[in-house]
Design a protein that fits this description.
By secondary structure, the chain is of the alpha+beta class. It has four helices and seven strands. The termini are far apart.
Length: about 160
């Protein structure tokens, strides 16, 4: 649709869907709408459609400026619990104790976090648990070794 209202500045919102596909929507009339399997593919298609609609073959006098805002994936308590393998009550307990990432926003429906913040927290939490487990098993083995040295064999 050459000549559609794109002008020289275009704002585009882009986000990753739960399926992993990327979507974008540009503020044009009619709007640019794109879906692609990758972030790069989505950006390429936005650029192609914007250039096509603006009539810029890439060499217009005024450059076409495309501003892309990548919207983060957000999760609530239930999704955070699923990522961590916890129940929702445990998430709330950690939140209330200040031992959980700060939410991006507190809404009427509850707190929301960036999904990548919760995924990073899950990695950190699991690595701490593994380290604590190794330290505990090391102490347990040392205790067992210490008691074995102090024992006498029963005489018969």
């Amino acid at each position: 649709m050459p000549g559609a209202d794109v002008g020289t500045d275009l704002r585009v919102a882009m986000w990753q869907e739960p399926s992993g596909r990327w979507s974008a929507r540009g503020e044009t009339d009619p709007p640019i709408q794109v879906r692609a399997s990758s972030k790069e593919g989505c950006l390429r298609e936005v650029r192609r459609q914007a250039l096509e609609r603006s009539g810029h073959p890439g060499g217009g006098r005024e450059p076409l400026v495309i501003t892309v805002e990548v919207l983060p994936r957000l999760v609530g308590v239930a999704e955070a619990a699923g990522i961590l393998g916890w129940d929702k009550r445990r998430v709330i307990t950690y939140v209330d104790r200040g031992r959980f990432p700060d939410p991006v926003e507190r809404l009427a429906g509850g707190r929301v976090w960036r999904r990548n913040d919760i995924e990073a927290y899950a990695v950190l939490w699991r690595s701490r648990r593994r380290q604590a487990g190794r330290a505990a098993s090391g102490r347990s083995a040392a205790r067992k070794a210490g008691t074995a040295k102090g024992r006498r064999s029963p005489s018969r």
